[in-house]
Q: What sequence folds into this?
């Protein structure tokens, strides 16, 4: 990426932000997260010490989100700033800020708190579950950060999400399914359960129910996992073995989440409902 106050060749470069240009050939091959990190690094070189937060901090840490990445860095500032393409978060700088990938970035807990002011609940839950799984923070550390930050509405959203967050979801798809199970009033399953036969490991499943004499396994995988033929074959052998052991196995993909088939599959499998329904996730 290049900084230039003069327009560059439009055939070779694309305008990313004010005075910031990227090569079209390379830019198109990058993920939105990588594009955002590249922009943050370039902006940091042109300005005095910046501390990135919000979606910028998530991109730098590699914390996944479901909402879109805008090409606009998020930074913390103790003073009012003029209007430009940086989204400023007012307040004192994070004492736990550190240098990562050559730029200053707030702690993961602070980044999630700032995300809560504009991200959807589903996207927030994905970010929280990832951080808990990777041990970037604990629930207690996030609650401490929530207590330190001003505001009320976004705190209620985070606190309610945190009650149902889990560090055992190993992918965003598992987090979305976990949220769907809770919102649907279903009995919450055990996660990441290992099964053995004659002391030999057979499988580690994403979610598992044992109820009314039934043993139900729920697997959640994206298309990328099955891009290799050997992986698809091994998964078929594994599933057949589970069925031989008396398990009922069903699967869901990202497509099932988006077209509503996930709930239909849960209904078809007669997943039991829990006695206490509880409150659904907050909606903004």
A:
């Amino acid at each position: 990426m290049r900084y230039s106050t003069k327009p560059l060749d439009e055939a070779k470069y694309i305008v990313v932000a004010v005075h910031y240009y990227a090569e079209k050939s390379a830019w198109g091959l990058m993920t939105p997260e990588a594009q955002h990190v590249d922009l943050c690094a370039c902006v940091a070189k042109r300005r005095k010490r910046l501390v990135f937060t919000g979606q910028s901090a998530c991109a730098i840490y590699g914390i996944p989100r479901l909402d879109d990445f805008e090409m606009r860095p998020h930074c913390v500032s103790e003073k009012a700033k003029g209007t430009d393409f940086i989204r400023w978060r007012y307040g004192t700088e994070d004492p736990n800020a550190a240098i990562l990938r050559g730029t200053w970035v707030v702690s993961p807990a602070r980044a999630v708190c700032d995300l809560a002011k504009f991200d959807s609940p589903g996207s927030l839950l994905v970010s929280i579950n990832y951080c808990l799984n990777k041990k970037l923070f604990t629930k207690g550390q996030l609650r401490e950060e929530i207590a330190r930050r001003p505001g009320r509405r976004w705190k209620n959203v985070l606190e309610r999400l945190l009650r149902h967050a889990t560090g055992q979801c190993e992918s965003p798809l598992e987090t979305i399914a976990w949220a769907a199970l809770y919102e649907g009033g279903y009995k919450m399953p055990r996660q990441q359960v290992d099964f053995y036969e004659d002391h030999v490991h057979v499988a580690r499943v994403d979610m598992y129910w044992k109820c009314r004499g039934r043993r139900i396994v729920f697997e959640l995988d994206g298309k990328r996992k099955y891009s290799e033929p050997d992986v698809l074959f091994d998964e078929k052998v594994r599933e057949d073995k589970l069925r031989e052991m008396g398990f009922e196995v069903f699967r869901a993909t990202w497509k099932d989440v988006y077209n509503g088939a996930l709930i239909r599959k849960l209904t078809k499998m007669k997943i039991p409902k829990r006695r206490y329904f509880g409150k659904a996730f907050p909606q903004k």
